Amino acid sequence: MRAFVTGGTGFVGANLIRLLLQQGYQVKALVRANSCLVNLKDLDIEIVRGDLNQEDLALQMKGCQVLFHVAAQYSLWKKDRDTLYLNNVLGTRNILNCARQAGIERTIYTSSVAAMGVRQDSLPADETYQSPVSKLIGDYKKSKYYGEQEAVKAIKTGQDIVIVNPSTPIGAWDIKPTPTGEIIVRFLQRKMPFYIDTGLNLIDVEDVAWGHVLALKQGKTGDRYILGNQNLTFAQLLGKLEQITGLPAPQKTIPGWIPYGVAWLEENVLTKLGKQPTIALDGVRMSRQKMFYDASKAVVQLGLPQSNIDDALFKAVKYFQTKGISNEGSRKQYL
């Protein structure tokens, strides 16, 4: 089977392509003209240069049976608002239209738990939950919501699409890195004296890749599946990193109003003076919520793996160290 993959240079996409190759698929990957191809180096795939809003993508998809639309723009900065909607909403609309024209038999659309939002009572949300779009924090989450709605519209017109909603993947090939990868990097570099009392649902990125393949094989058209695993408070996450690396975890929380004030000042004042902000206001607002999710549906209906989170964190730490991240204070020699 021949698969067309968008977002293959990114974290989830790079792991998905490797799994597809292992499973015997032929892969054609769409990459932007200026994309870094490090994550695709030496892979036996066909690379096509272009972007999600090209009208001729149907020609590039010819001969492929399935589409994995993984690509998305991620940013929490206000200045990137227009780009978020251009890629995550209009780009999704265009590529799904092109998939229909190309005769793609089934599409796996990578949404995000960000599109669902979080429950106000901090209990884990499942696929039946949907926060009002007005309650979604920031344009990234809203753009993912509206992007998912493009998939829903296409399903209603007869396209065979399954939606997957990854939570917070961790592991290797986190090249940018992602916000969670950045947490690990800052921990290793001893740049985290305090932490905010928040919570995340973590999952091994390799399990996320398997979730895509299992959704292709067993997912129900029109359904969405949370690809997640373990809910952890930030303190629990830092405790696991301490056990893995031997580095002491920060013990003190910081009141939310402090980073909020700094972020507000940077985005609303310093940027007007030509300064580069360091903390995104939307990121601070998100951290006030515990982003917990229930992936039972994907586990039961798809057989989504639930690999040990400690092992996934270990792989992430090892990956970042291999890439030159300093953790000279580590006492664990195997790292």
UniProtKB/TrEMBL annotation:
Classification via CDD domains: AR_FR_like_1_SDR_e (cd05228)
The organism of origin for this protein: Waterburya agarophytonicola KI4
Stretches assigned to the NAD-dependent epimerase/dehydratase domain: 4-228
Gene Ontology MF annotations: aldehyde dehydrogenase (NAD+) activity
NCBIfam families in UniProt: HpnA
Residues in coiled coil: none
GO cellular component: cytoplasm
Name used for this protein in its record: NAD-dependent epimerase/dehydratase family protein
